[in-house]
Amino acid sequence: MAKTSEKNSKNEKKVKDILKVPAEFYYGTGRRKNAIAKVWLFEGSGKVSINKKDPLEYLKTELLTGLIFKPLKDLKLDGKYDVVVKTIGGGLVGQAGAIQLGIARSILTLNPSFRNQLKESGFLTRDPRVKERKKYGRKKARKGFQFRKR
Prior knowledge:
The protein is an alpha+beta fold.
C-alpha cells in the first residue's frame, strides 16, 4: 500500500510541475508567410516574452516591437496583460506580423465586443501574400531560363 501512495504523490508533483500557467488565460494563433505565432494573454503587469526573450532583444528593432503592441495600445490594454509568445518559421518581419494577429485574436477571446475596433484597424485580417511556388521548366516561380537565338 505504501508504494501506491508514493506513486500518487509523484504523479501529483508531475502535474504541479506541468501546470505553471495561471488558470485563466486567453489564446490566439497568428500566421503570416511561413511564420506561426502562438500567443497567450494572462492578467498581469504588462510583461512580454517572445520565445523566452525580451521583445526588443528578439525582434531587434523598435519598429517591429511597436508593430506587435498596436492592438493592445489601440484598445488601451497595454500594461494590464502579460503576453507570452512562441514563434516558429519565417523571418523576423513575418513573425512580427504573426504575433500581431495572434495578439488581436487572443484579445477577441478575452472580450468579443472588441471585434469592431480591431476589424476597423485591420488587425484581424490575415495577410494572404505567400511566396509563389516554383514551376517546372522555369528557373524560379516566373523567371524563365535565358533565351539565346544564335
